[in-house]
């Protein structure tokens, strides 16, 4: 496909998204209908769509309106290209610019939904503008080294052998930032043999901060794909880890991931008894991961956020009784919003006076990678 044909494809997909279709579904539909598109074309169209969603408001202003065309015209202008050279109407190129599209408007101050801005600012204070700016850019890819499957030098050498270059991070021995070859990860030997797993830096830092002891029963209550359970198993194979999810289908990938990592993780339908550590990695707005899922930023509504806050509070109340005396509860979100983080914990502590908060950590793209929150609580007053 020519660059202009890729832009035409992105325009069609973006129009579907603006009509309410989820990004992944619209991309899949286009892929299936476009057998002529090679893997390079698919990756390029996907990048165009996601780049446009990250900066939806500013590109719409630059491109003359909120439409697939407006966003792609804005993207051309943002990148210093003349859209008239691309929008020629020749071959598979999009139709020439209309008079309105020839005149960009000044871009807005940030790429946040208007209703959310006050909360965003209150949650992030002096960092709010910088973090909003970073959320409009692509996110780096991180791997977590699994020492149970091979040494770090072995993992790095295997990755390099498959064309994947990584940089170590001073904050955490297991964290590797991918600097080249990210699209080759899932086919690489190091990944398939379980020496590395995909996991962002911030949840890695959170999991590394969890208190564990040999033989401890651990429950990952909202396990989903099992990212937190797998990180703990890689760190401490002697733990007895159980994984639960209200929707067991969400744990569908976990057995294969655990096999690759040689991790012992037992799926449980109904957690019972008491656990030394309960992880509640609750459903959230995902506002810390909007670089990776930028359409979620535009799909979130005040009502949706309120619904999430109610679910989070209900999960906290549900897991409280599963925590052993002197055991720990780790509340996690990939959100930057105070309402889902510290405010949620403050209310839980008001309802559950046998818990105390030990730590509260908020990672943002300024100091780590994705936005991520961890509150570590202990049951028992001292
Ligand atoms: C943020 S995701 C978990 C991500 C996962 N821990 C990981 O690291 O890959 C939240 C999960 O919570 C689950 N969930 C939602 N409501 C729940 C509830 N009431 N009890 C348990 N799990 C719930 C969802 O199905 C979803 O898989």
From TrEMBL:
<keyword id="KW-0808">Transferase</keyword>
<feature type="binding site">
    <location>
        <position position="245"/>
    </location>
    <ligand>
        <name>S-adenosyl-L-methionine</name>
    </ligand>
</feature>
<dbReference type="Pfam" id="PF22458">
    <property type="entry name" value="RsmF-B_ferredox"/>
</dbReference>
<dbReference type="GO" id="GO:0008173">
    <property type="term" value="F:RNA methyltransferase activity"/>
</dbReference>
<keyword id="KW-0694">RNA-binding</keyword>
<dbReference type="GO" id="GO:0001510">
    <property type="term" value="P:RNA methylation"/>
</dbReference>
<dbReference type="InterPro" id="IPR029063">
    <property type="entry name" value="SAM-dependent_MTases_sf"/>
</dbReference>
<comment type="similarity">
    <text>Belongs to the class I-like SAM-binding methyltransferase superfamily. RsmB/NOP family.</text>
</comment>
<protein>
    <submittedName>
        <fullName>16S rRNA (Cytosine967-C5)-methyltransferase</fullName>
    </submittedName>
</protein>
<feature type="binding site">
    <location>
        <position position="281"/>
    </location>
    <ligand>
        <name>S-adenosyl-L-methionine</name>
    </ligand>
</feature>
<dbReference type="InterPro" id="IPR001678">
    <property type="entry name" value="MeTrfase_RsmB-F_NOP2_dom"/>
</dbReference>
<dbReference type="Pfam" id="PF01189">
    <property type="entry name" value="Methyltr_RsmB-F"/>
</dbReference>
<dbReference type="InterPro" id="IPR054728">
    <property type="entry name" value="RsmB-like_ferredoxin"/>
</dbReference>
<dbReference type="GO" id="GO:0003723">
    <property type="term" value="F:RNA binding"/>
</dbReference>
<keyword id="KW-0489">Methyltransferase</keyword>
<keyword id="KW-0949">S-adenosyl-L-methionine</keyword>
<dbReference type="InterPro" id="IPR023267">
    <property type="entry name" value="RCMT"/>
</dbReference>
<feature type="domain" description="SAM-dependent MTase RsmB/NOP-type">
    <location>
        <begin position="131"/>
        <end position="382"/>
    </location>
</feature>
<feature type="active site" description="Nucleophile">
    <location>
        <position position="334"/>
    </location>
</feature>
<dbReference type="InterPro" id="IPR049560">
    <property type="entry name" value="MeTrfase_RsmB-F_NOP2_cat"/>
</dbReference>
